[in-house]
TrEMBL record:
Catalytic residues in the record: 711 (proton donor)
Annotated gene: metE
Residues binding L-homocysteine: 448-450, 501, 616
Cofactor dependency: Zn(2+)
Top-rank taxon, per record: Bacteria
Family, per entry: Belongs to the vitamin-B12 independent methionine synthase family.
Any one Gene Ontology molecular-function term assigned to this protein's record: zinc ion binding
Name used for this protein in its record: 5-methyltetrahydropteroyltriglutamate--homocysteine methyltransferase
Manner of cofactor binding, per the entry note: Binds 2 Zn(2+) ions per subunit. Binds 1 zinc ion per subunit.
Residues reported to bind Zn(2+) 2: 658
Pathway: Amino-acid biosynthesis; L-methionine biosynthesis via de novo pathway; L-methionine from L-homocysteine (MetE route): step 1/1
Pfam families in the record: Meth_synt_1, Meth_synt_2
Functional summary from the UniProt entry: Catalyzes the transfer of a methyl group from 5-methyltetrahydrofolate to homocysteine resulting in methionine formation.
Length: 771
């Protein structure tokens, strides 16, 4: 007799916030523009929450999460909840008596005001969602404002639903925070004793309002944490659990395995744990078994992948759930993480081949999968036989589809040898060949690729989409832009030019649209940050390049000038990082296919006379696995796929790459192994610290540390750029240095671009004359 678990429930951690028509984005932006007032925005928020609640309930979700809604970001909401509001934002919006006052202070933290810069923004673990980094110092004073979770709880109760409020847990909140002053010997986690009492108070208030469960998210525990932090985890949850008037506590982890934190939480007095049983399935299963299970606790089993868009393998998930029944007091069925990271609904995709649509599962479809699995778990397989059958045939259709497996692509990948990953000659010999061809001055000046994406360019693209502009007219407009960008760079006096990327909507989408194996969606919006949503392409099948993608643009640009124009491509790792990647083969295999397609493009650019080719890999570091022990394997395929895409060229073709992040420590060796002739890196924001790191690591090739932080329109003076250059020259051989901005200029305007690049060229001249 299969054991039945009557308490098993279907649940999720969270749901997309924006609404099917992206109502929330539109309402917030209208509020910013002064077109609607605070009441109207608050009403839109409330309607959306009501709508989502009904959608989840009607889908059969038995325990519905609360407080996952946000006007901007859930980490910002947590900072607000705890009263961790920087002085400058308090001063910027001193009066919060009215709803508008509250919203304005909240948005001031998110977006800044004229004199109060916003909180810093960074990626939420290894996702493409960005959160706002709380600012905490030794003197931060906290004060609880529980109004948001409480009001949302009560609002749902009025609809007859007792939700499970979801909050960022205290450990994760503090580990994600930063002290902007960098106070000696202080870490935000030192504030734990001040924060825990507020959480206790919050639990009490939620209990009073009628909450039965509360979910505290601790995703920071899936990253390596020292014993001292794990001790704090044990203390914190013991303290929180000691409060008697509180809801039951579910501690949620996701994105990876809990590792050493699992035994700590398993032996803590909290009533429930949520674990990721998708990517981290076997590690979490083993760890659960190793502690003898959690017979006294509720397990929320994330068996449906909340990070990808593929239909789940229901039979496999059901068998995982079956195993888990023996390891926990009760087992609930959920997605691995909030569904915030996937698009809303496949049925909106009317352009997709129905067969392909059957392979997919967006947030709305994942609800059905979860509900089905819950039924299968409690009522037995027979009860869901029909659905299992359909699921099986959809998985089979995907596995045998000719767009998924293309023998020619597979044969080509299988034939790759180690020699394909390496340039013919060592860097020293290549350098001579390149110097002989390019005749560049010392400290060559260049840019990263894009020039400002002006309103006219965006309008032209929109007009093309709506059919108001034909392809030929669009091409003409883009060519005119390339001419202008080349002329501009010649006027300024840069040494290596770019075509400016005007024809690219996005550096991944642009290539995805031209490669086989990639699919685009019409409505597959996913929140990137605040009101910014992206539509990542799906890599569904084997990747190849039917025809050249950029050669015409590069050769057109090159025909306009005597100076070298860099060809510009997006690297394989970044193409994967900013897409939904197939889950039926290792990522490294998919990366190799993309790499071979890019290799064809690189060789075609070379054959067309392009002497310098840049392959951007800005996502290389953000894709780094959360657990350090997984990193070497990742870097192996990441570096190999970059090499495979670039190593086919002649000695006298110069390969560039570009990366932009604050810290390069974890990837310095990878940068060396990639063996690009030149790498341009973000550096101005960290005062060129990277240059000394490169020297110390023995980086043997050429490097262009950025001298302009392009994140703001501020124009650095000639003296400032000279200062940066002298720092660089002092730490790294001048004959291997380049001069460039931190990143592309697409978000900047022409006034600051002209002024800064002019200063950059002037500063370079001064340093060349007096090294
Ligand atoms: N070539 C790209 C650009 O200049 C690089 C962008 C990036 O690093 N994210 O826009
Ligand atoms: Zn960049």
């Amino acid at each position: 007799m299969p054991q039945t678990t009557p308490t098993s429930r279907a649940t999720v951690h969270g749901y997309p916030r924006q609404g099917a028509q992206r109502q929330l984005k539109k309402a917030i932006e209208s509020y910013w523009a002064g077109r609607v007032d605070a009441d109207s925005l608050l009403t839109t928020g409330k309607e959306l929450r009501r709508h989502n609640l009904r959608e989840l309930r009607d889908a059969g979700i038995e325990e519905i999460p609360g407080n996952y809604f946000s006007f901007y970001d859930h980490v910002l909401d947590t900072a607000w909840l705890l009263g961790a509001i920087p002085e400058r934002h308090l001063a910027a919006v001193p009066d919060i008596a009215s709803p508008a006052g509250k919203l304005d202070r909240y948005f001031a933290m998110a977006r800044g005001t004229a004199d109060a810069p916003p909180l810093e923004m960074t990626k939420w673990f290894d996702t493409n969602y960005h959160y706002l980094v709380p600012e905490l110092g030794p003197d931060t004073r906290f004060a609880l404002d529980a109004s948001k979770p409480l009001e949302e709880f009560t609002e749902a109760l009025e609809q007859g639903v007792t939700t499970r409020p979801v909050l960022v847990g205290p450990i994760t909140f503090l580990l994600l925070a930063k002290d902007p002053a960098g106070t000696d010997g202080f870490r935000p986690l030192d504030l734990l004793d001040k924060v825990v009492p507020l959480y206790t108070d919050l639990l009490r208030q939620l209990h009073e309002a009628g909450a039965e469960w509360v979910q505290l998210d601790e995703p920071a525990l899936v990253t390596d944490q020292p014993a001292e932090v794990l001790d704090k985890v044990a203390d914190t949850y013991a303290t929180l659990a000691a409060e008697t008037a509180r809801p039951k506590i579910l501690v949620a982890s996701y994105f990876d395995r809990l590792g050493d934190a699992l035994p700590v939480l398993a032996s803590s007095p909290v009533e429930g744990l949520a674990l990721d049983f998708t990517n981290a399935a076997s590690a979490n299963l083993d760890a659960l078994a190793a502690v003898g299970g959690i017979p006294d606790k509720r397990l929320v089993a994330g068996v449906v992948n909340g990070r990808n868009i593929w239909a789940a393998d229901l039979a496999a998930a059901l068998s995982t759930l079956g195993t888990l029944l023996g390891l926990a007091g009760s087992v609930d069925v959920s997605a691995s993480c909030s569904l915030l990271h996937v698009p809303l609904d496949v049925t909106l995709e009317t352009d997709l081949d129905p067969e392909v649509a059957g392979w997919l599962s967006f947030a709305r479809q994942k609800l059905d999968e979860i509900v089905t699995l819950r039924r299968g778990l409690t009522e037995g397989r027979g009860a869901i036989g029909n659905v299992l059958h359909i699921n099986e045939s959809r998985l089979a259709s995907r596995a045998s589809s000719p767009i998924v497996r293309v023998p020619a692509v597979r044969d080509r990948v299988a034939a790759v040898t180690d020699a394909d990953l390496h340039r013919t000659s060592q860097y020293g010999k290549r350098r001579q060949a390149q110097q002989g061809r390019l005749h560049l001055p010392e400290l060559p000046t260049t840019t990263i690729g894009s020039f400002p994406q002006t309103t006219d360019l965006r309008k032209a693209r929109a007009a093309l989409r709506k059919g108001e502009l034909d392809q030929a007219a669009y091409q003409d407009a883009m060519r005119a832009e390339v001419r202008a960008v080349i002329a501009e760079q010649e006027r300024i006096g840069l040494d290596v030019l770019v075509h400016g990327e005007p024809e690219r909507n996005d550096m991944v989408q642009y290539f995805g649209e031209q490669l086989t194996g990639f699919l685009a969606t019409q409505h597959g919006w996913v929140q990137s940050y605040g009101t910014r949503y992206v539509r990542p392409p799906l890599i569904a099948g084997d990747v190849s390049r039917p025809t050249p993608m950029t050669v015409e643009w590069a050769t057109y640009a090159q025909s306009l000038t005597e100076r070298p124009v860099k060809g510009m491509l997006t690297g394989p790792v970044t193409m994967l990082a900013w897409s939904f990647v197939r889950d039926d083969q290792p990522e490294g295999d998919t990366a190799r296919q993309v790499a071979l397609a890019l290799r064809d493009e690189v060789l075609d650019l070379e054959a067309a006379g392009i002497a310098i080719i840049q392959v951007d890999e800005p996502a290389l570091r953000e894709t780094l696995p959360l657990r350090t022990t997984d990193r070497a394997a990742y870097l192996d395929w990441a570096v190999a796929s970059f090499q495979l895409s670039t190593a086919g060229v002649r000695d006298d073709t110069q390969i560039h790459t570009h990366m932009c992040y604050a810290e390069f420590g974890d990837v310095l060796q990878a940068i060396i192994d990639m063996d690009a002739d030149v790498i341009s890196l973000e550096a101005a924001r960290s005062n060129m610290a990277i240059v000394a790191d490169l020297a110390l690591a023995g980086y043997p090739n050429e490097a262009g540390p950025g001298v302009w932080d392009i994140h703001s329109p501020r124009v650095p003076s000639v003296e400032e750029v000279v200062g940066h250059l002298r720092t660089a020259v002092g730490a790294f051989p001048a004959d291997r240095l380049w001069v460039n901005p931190d990143c592309g200029l697409k978000t900047r305007g022409y006034p600051e671009v002209r002024a800064t690049l002019t200063n950059l060229v002037e500063a370079t001249g001064q340093v060349r004359a007096r090294p």
